[in-house]
Recover the amino acids of this structure.
């Protein structure tokens, strides 16, 4: 079932979202300061490509630097990305068939707000 959900996700928009994340990640990695942000965006891109069967958890070793980076990320890029995912999730929630895809967009919105100090695991 996870494979089928991921396949439908990729066909109906997941590949475009993942490409956007990866291109923005490469753009952020041009500067040395942007490398940590680019790595987090790459993490979001990998999750956006194949989201079903994955879970986002907090790392037990995340510290003060992650909190500072999350605050910077929130204002620089996290809020617009999260708003986009929430709006897409609401659109998917309108139909019964789209509810699983709406849930995935809400998961992506959650990690888009604060990606530092989190990791993606298989569930």
């Amino acid at each position: 079932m996870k494979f089928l959900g991921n396949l439908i996700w990729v066909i109906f928009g997941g590949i475009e979202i993942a490409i956007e994340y990866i291109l923005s990640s490469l753009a952020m990695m041009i500067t040395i300061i942007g490398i940590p942000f680019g790595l987090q965006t790459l993490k979001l891109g990998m999750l956006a490509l194949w989201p079903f069967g994955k879970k986002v958890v907090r790392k037990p070793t995340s510290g003060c630097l992650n909190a500072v980076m999350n605050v910077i990320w929130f204002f620089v890029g996290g809020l617009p990305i999260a708003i986009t995912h929430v709006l897409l999730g609401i659109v998917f929630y309108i139909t019964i068939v789209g509810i699983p895809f709406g849930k995935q967009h809400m998961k992506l919105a959650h990690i888009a707000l604060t990606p530092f100090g989190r990791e993606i695991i298989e569930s």
